[in-house]
Amino acid sequence: xxxxxxxxxxxxxxxxxxxxxxxxxxxxxxxxxxxxxxxxxxxxxxxxxxxxxxxxxxxxxxxxxxxxxxxxxxxxxxxxxxxxxxxxxxxxxxxxxxxxxxxxxxxxxxxxxxxxxxxxxxxxxxxxxxxxxxxxxxxxxxxxxxxxx
Length: 149
Description:
By secondary structure, the protein is of the alpha+beta class. The chain has helices at 36-42, 44-50, 97-123, 139-148; strands at residues 11-17, 23-31, 60-61, 68-69, 73-74, 85-86. The chain has a two-stranded antiparallel sheet. A two-stranded antiparallel sheet has the order 3-4. β1 and β2 (23-31) form a beta hairpin.
């Protein structure tokens, strides 16, 4: 079950980070073969968000505005659209310029999580190759330790 569609073994790492490249929450251990959306809906992150127990800050106005806006997570097209989770519009030939602009800006903002993971990998060089561990050997504890070290 850990053998993924790219033909190697993997364990999923669902992660939430902030604007300072820090992990806020991680959910580790799902089978590598599963989809992001399926893993997300089974994760503790999703369950806490749905139960409104994730400790999300109250609405605040964006800079230079007065209308309070909610805090949201940003995901790619593999995630479900929720009031707390933005994802891009589906890519098709009929995207108008406003939707294309939204997708571009969302993609640009999502780079934060990609950069956070890149920083993690550069700091912990053992992540550049496969970990020499079986999932039963507490690989989830090792990854959590690395994420919050």
